[in-house]
Each structure stands twice: as C-alpha cells, then as structure tokens.
Design goal:
Layout (H helix, E strand, L loop, with lengths): L9 E4 L15 H13 L3 E5 L22 E4 L4 E4 L2 E5 L4 H13 L3 E5 L4 E3 L4 H7 L7 E2 L11 E5 L5 H6 L7 E7 L2 E6 L4 H12 L6 E5 L5 H6 L2 E4 L5 H6 L2 E2 L7 H8 L4
Parallel strand pairs: 1-2, 1-12, 2-3, 7-8, 12-13, 13-14
Antiparallel strand pairs: 3-4, 4-5, 6-7, 6-9, 9-11, 10-11
C-alpha cells in the first residue's frame, strides 16, 4: 500500500460511481455526514472533478453544493472550472471549429449534442440519444443550431464503438481534438490537451498549491489522467481494472463507503 508523502490540501472526487451511486440515485450518507465535514474541519477543500457539465449534476449532489459542502468544481473533463461561483478557467470551442465538426458528423449521418456550462442541446432525439443522456441530464433540449447563440465547451457524438475507426478516419478530430467514450452510444469530442488533470492543474495554480497537495478518487477511464497526475490517486473498488492498476491505492466499492474507508485508513481524516 502506498502512503501519503505530503500534506493534502484538496481532495477531488469524480461523480458517477465514485461520489454518486447511480443505481440508487444517491450519495452515500458517509460522504455527507462524515467525509465532507471532517475534511473541512481539517482545512482540506472537498472538490468535484467530473466529465459532467455543471448544469447536469445529479439532484442528490445539489444539497451539498454550498459553503458547508462543495464549492470547488472541475467540470466537463476540466474545461469549465469554478470556485464559489467564479470561473477559474474555461476552454470553449470556436464557432468555426464547431461548424467543421458538424459538417463531418452530418456526412457520417451521426447525431450530436452541444455541451455548455448549463445545458445539453441535441440535434435530434433518438433512442440512442435518450439512452445516453437521460441518466445524465433528463431535461436536455433539442436544438441543432444551439451553438450559434451559446458558448460550447465540447460536443457529444452518438455512435457505437464499432464505428470509431470510421469516425476518426473522417478527419473530424483534425490536430486539436480527441474522442473519449462516455457511453456505449456516446463519445465526448474535446480539445486534446484538456482533461480533468488539466482542470486540476488550473485549480491548484489558482490556490497556490502543488500537485503533491492534491488527492483524487475515481472509477472510470476518464479518470486515468487525473489519477496519474495528482499527488495521491485512489481507485474505487468498483473501478475499471486499468484505473486500479494505475492508482496509488484501491479502496472499497462505493456501496461499501469506499471514500470514507480510504480517507480514514490513509490518515487524511
């Protein structure tokens, strides 16, 4: 078992299947009743680092988004980051870049969605779109031209894994984007230099902390860069095997209060 070598100032938590138990649509009581107040009592900032956009947080988390809970957010894979309602950094796509992507997606006959800080707007509602988005943001809207009047942080493209090579071969990514699969029917299209790790770096710079002062908990493949970057990375017991192999520590699954268990065993709280 790895041990902590430096004082922890901020702990970043992924949302889905780390902080938020999707199956039961809840946050473990141990998080709200023990983890957050005990971190704050020690002067450690509890933060969220998620692939979700700020406007698509689960209802269960919203009561914890206040001065006594979470005030620091790394969202949309590190592309929109804020503290106490003030933006630390953001990385919107230009209208011209969005339009080049749309041209390719239309040629491929692939539906898409625009992701902004507060909303997700889809080109068309299909069964695949609905299955991908309902668990994330049930009140998404349909507007194929939403990008014309709103700042778009990233796009979603709705296609299965077996079409990935075809989509990449189309040239849609050019030299500046990457694709990260978030669902069996959905892929995030975003700046290739952006990630949760980049957002965390921005946040640490803002506070004047070093990377060694950051700890993170995650479970999915979009947590790989985050877990590899922070001073101490923890994989949930329910995490992807690739993430577990990379982490400094593997804790219990979410439904067994893995966050609380790790923080206590590692002496953080």
């Amino acid at each position: 078992m790895s041990t902590l070598q430096h004082p922890i100032k901020i702990v970043f938590f992924d949302i889905d299947e780390t902080l938020y138990y999707k199956k039961e649509e809840r946050i473990p009581l141990s998080v709200s009743e023990q983890v957050i107040p005990r971190l704050k009592a020690k002067g450690i900032i509890p933060a969220i680092a998620t692939g979700r956009t700020y406007g698509a947080f689960p209802k269960a988390i919203k009561p914890l988004m206040n001065k006594d809970g979470f005030e620091l957010f790394v969202t949309t894979n590190g592309q929109y980051n804020l503290y106490q309602g003030q933006i630390i950094s953001e990385y919107p796509l230009t209208t011209e870049r969005v339009e080049r992507m749309l041209t390719k997606l239309k040629e491929l006959q692939i539906e898409y969605a625009f992701v902004t800080a507060e909303q997700i707007a889809v080109s068309k509602n299909t069964a695949e779109v609905e299955e991908s988005l309902r668990p994330i943001k049930a009140d998404y809207i349909v507007d194929p031209n939403y990008y014309l009047d709103h700042s778009v942080i990233q796009l979603l493209a709705f296609f299965p894994q077996e079409r990935t090579a075809e989509v990449v071969a189309s040239g849609i990514l050019e030299d500046d984007l990457k694709e990260v699969r978030s669902h069996k029917y959905s892929v995030d299209l975003l700046n290739k230099h952006n990630s949760k790790a980049k957002g965390i770096q921005d946040v640490l710079t803002h506070f004047g902390f070093g990377i060694e002062n950051a700890m993170a908990f995650g479970d999915g493949l979009n947590d790989l860069e985050m877990i590899a970057t922070v001073g101490f990375g923890v994989a949930m017991g329910n995490a992807e095997e690739e993430l577990k192999a990379l982490a400094d520590y593997v804790t219990l699954p979410i439904e067994q209060d893995g966050i609380l268990d790790a923080l206590e065993k590692l002496g953080v709280i």
